Every structure is written in C-alpha cells, then in structure tokens.
Amino acid sequence: MNALQLHTTIHARGPAAAILLSDEQVAALGSVKNPPVVVTIGDRVARLRIARMGGENMLGLSKAARAELGVEIGDEVEVEIALDAAERTVEVPPALAEALAADPAAKAAFDALAYSRRKEIARSIAEAKQEATRERRLEKALAELRG
C-alpha cells in the first residue's frame, strides 16, 4: 500500500481545518478520486476521506477529528496518509442499538447511510453527558431515519 509521509501545517478552512494535498500527492496514493484514508499523526490515528473543494485537495479536519488526532489549526505536523482498505464499521452505542433492533425500517435506513453519517449519529448519542440529551439526540436520529 502506498503511503505519504508529509511535514505540513494544519490550515483553517471555514469553521474547520484541513491538510492540503497536491494532485501529485493524491495520485501517489494510487486510488480513486476521493479515497478513504488512515491519517496518523504521532501515535494518534483517524479514518478520514480526501475531498476536493474550491479547487484544492484536502483532508477535512472537523473539531472531532482534530481532537482525535490531537492537533489544532496552525500546528506543524508530521503526518502519514495511507489508503484505508479496511471495512468501515461504526461502534453503535447501546441506546441506539436497542432502538434500531426494535425498528427494522430505521435499522435498514441507518445501515444504508454513508459511513461518515453513521459515525456522526453514533458519536452524537454516545458523547451526550446527560441522559435527557442522549434521549433527545436518539429521538432526533430515529425521526431522521424514519424519514
């Protein structure tokens, strides 16, 4: 598997941040247009996707992704970027798993979502600090899944 080793800066892009890549760097990964990748900074790893926005190739870094990687906007980092060939599975919190088990239509809709959307739904429920917040987020997710 091809991997890129870069010394780069975390750039601000709108409300988020990004690692910018040249066309040559993306091509060196030897993959499709918007490949899923494993990003390693130090001993931290995140599973992301390369995107092209505003004429630039970038690895978008949401606040959650920056926390996962331990970086902030403006940081200079050594990063390894490798194609992600592993199956992308989401750790579903117990409350969501129970609700999906009880509602086959919602489970089918959840399973049909893109990995990133499934991950975001699961994360928002799992990270709720209060039970009321968790229940509210669970109900919102189920309403979205039911259409």
UniProtKB/TrEMBL annotation:
Q: Name one Pfam family in it.
A: OmdA
**What InterPro entries does the record point to?**
AF2212/PG0164-like_sf, DUF1905
- The protein's name is Bacteriocin resistance YdeI/OmpD-like protein
| Protein source organism | Microbacterium barkeri
